[in-house]
Design goal:
The protein has 12 helices and 15 strands. The chain has helices spanning about 30-45, 80-85, 125-140, 170-180, 200-210, 235-245, 260-265, 275-280, 285-320, 325-365, 370-410, 410-415, and strands at about 10-15, 20, 45-60, 65-70, 75-80, 95-105, 110-120, 160-165, 185-190, 215-220, 250-255, 270, 420-425, 440-445, 450-455. The strands form 4 sheets. It has a 5-stranded mixed beta barrel. A 5-stranded parallel sheet has the order 9-8-10-11-12, with helices on both faces. Strand 10 (about 215-220), helix 6 and strand 11 form a beta-alpha-beta unit. The chain is elongated and about 185 Å long. This is Exodeoxyribonuclease 7 large subunit.
Length: about 475
């Protein structure tokens, strides 16, 4: 079905969120109220409004209707059952409260009202400032650093819960765990979640869970409420206990819009206690489905393995013989080996004897005749001695002839025949030419019986061709 525009023809919403209409066109009241409501919702964000409760009424449907006022004005409020059921307290006449609401219009009556999403007692502004200061301090110390966060176990053996035994959040968590993972045991560490000293007791339970080591993961949780109700989870002692825990911790405090210091210190923050239970528990249905898949895969693998083994068994069966036949074959084989061993032991001896006989025969054939050789050696010795004697005689005769020739050519023999040799005393050379003889020249004169040094007083030279 085609929808009609709430605005008459020619009318359109402006970019500022307001509506414009043609001046001469009548606008139905419902259309006008709807346009005003749309403009209010777009113009006013979600805001906290403080005032005093007046005319509070709880309808049979579970919705809350009341007014919030101060000394100068009042405003009608409505809080629907979906939000009201999570409120930690029910406002009463005269209570000072703060509501987190959206400005809307109840179109049938054209009445301005606040659509309340959360309610808290007055005074939470101071607590919120304390919350911000503590958060900044712990964050500066590194308690919220991502590298400090521990991973959650995939399949925990036991799950611990730190909360009050009377808390509705405990029932939600236990219901979720029994639905998702009924096989996992749950241990509850009871501690108050609201009131004086609750934060210290919660921190003590976290320390106790770490000391006992009974669980693999820990849930710290409670239901929603105002900032005062949740303040136990904003205490520094609990934050430090969570940060120093050796067990992984999931924080599930309040609703999705509620944040506490414990959420930042925990390893994982869940939007609700039920969400925390879902984070720490593997879903039984998924585990069973995965187990079925793995069982089927294991069965298929085992079947293929058995088929291969059966085929191998058939192959081995074909090779298998009876023990008696196997012994007979081994006996025959042993006899063959024995015969081969005996033959192998005798063959080298026979071969060695044959080789020895052949070598001895060859040795005897080539054995020398020592008598003839000895006679030949004696004869050769005699011939060698005679040859040495003749050679010595020839050499002696040759030396004598050379000595005679040398004696004939000896300078001494020449001197003995009356000749003399003149030697220049300065150069030590023989004088061969008269031209070298000068007056007062010193000469050494060699004669047959000696030599004498003389000095020339007078020289008369003449050249001749001989004596």
């Amino acid at each position: 079905m085609q929808s009609r525009s709430p605005f008459p023809p020619g009318g359109a919403a402006t970019t500022s969120g307001s509506a414009s209409f043609e001046a001469d066109v009548a606008v139905p009241v419902s259309v006008l109220n709807r346009a005003i409501g749309t403009m209010l919702e777009r113009s006013f964000p979600l805001v906290w409004v403080a005032g005093e409760v007046s005319n509070f009424t709880r309808a049979a449907s579970g919705h809350w209707y009341f007014s919030i006022k101060d000394a100068q004005a009042q405003m009608r409020c409505v809080m629907f059952r979906g939000r009201a059921q999570y409120a930690e307290f029910t406002p009463r006449e005269g209570d000072k409260i703060e509501v987190r609401a959206l400005v809307t219009m109840y179109e049938p009556r054209g009445e301005l009202q606040l659509n309340v999403e959360a309610v808290r007692r007055t005074g939470t502004g101071r607590l919120y400032e304390m919350f911000l200061r503590l958060k900044a301090q712990l964050e500066a110390e590194g308690l919220f650093a991502p590298e400090r966060k521990r991973p959650l176990p995939t399949h925990p053996h036991a799950i611990g819960i730190v909360t009050s035994l009377q808390a509705a959040a405990l029932r939600d968590v236990l219901t979720t765990l029994s639905r998702r993972a009924p096989h996992i045991p749950v241990i509850v560490y009871p501690a108050p979640v609201q009131g004086a000293g609750a934060g210290e007791k919660l921190a003590a339970m976290v320390a106790t869970a770490n000391a006992r080591r009974e669980v693999d993961v820990l849930i710290v949780c409670r239901g929603g409420g105002s900032i005062e109700d949740l303040w136990s989870f904003n205490e520094e002692g609990l934050a430090r206990a969570i940060a120093s825990s050796e067990l992984p911790i999931v924080s599930g405090v309040g609703h999705e819009t509620d944040f506490t210091i414990a959420d930042f210190a925990a390893d994982v923050r869940a939007p609700t206690p039920t969400g925390a239970a879902e984070l720490v528990s593997p879903q039984r249905t998924m585990l069973l489905r995965e187990l079925d898949h793995r069982t089927a895969a294991l069965a298929r693998g085992f079947g293929r393995h058995m088929e291969r083994r059966a085929q191998q068994l058939d192959w081995l069966a074909r090779r298998l013989v009876s023990p008696a036949e196997r012994l007979r074959r081994q006996r025959v084989h042993l006899q063959q080996l024995q015969a081969r061993l005996a033959s192998a032991g005798a063959r080298p001896l026979r071969d060695a004897q044959a080789r020895f006989a052949l070598v001895r025969l060859r040795w005897q054939r080539w054995r020398p005749d020592l008598t003839a050789a000895r006679s030949s050696v004696v004869g050769l010795g005699r011939r060698l001695d005679a040859a040495f004697e003749r050679q010595e005689e020839r050499r002696a005769s040759k030396v004598a002839a050379l000595a005679a020739r040398l004696d004939v050519l000896s300078p001494q023999r020449t001197l003995e025949r009356g000749y003399a040799a003149l030697i220049d005393a300065q150069t030590g050379r023989a004088v061969r030419s008269p031209a070298t003889l000068k007056r007062d020249k010193r000469l050494t004169v060699h004669v047959a019986e000696g030599s004498a040094d003389v000095t020339l007083k007078d020289v008369q030279s003449r050249l001749t061709d001989g004596f």
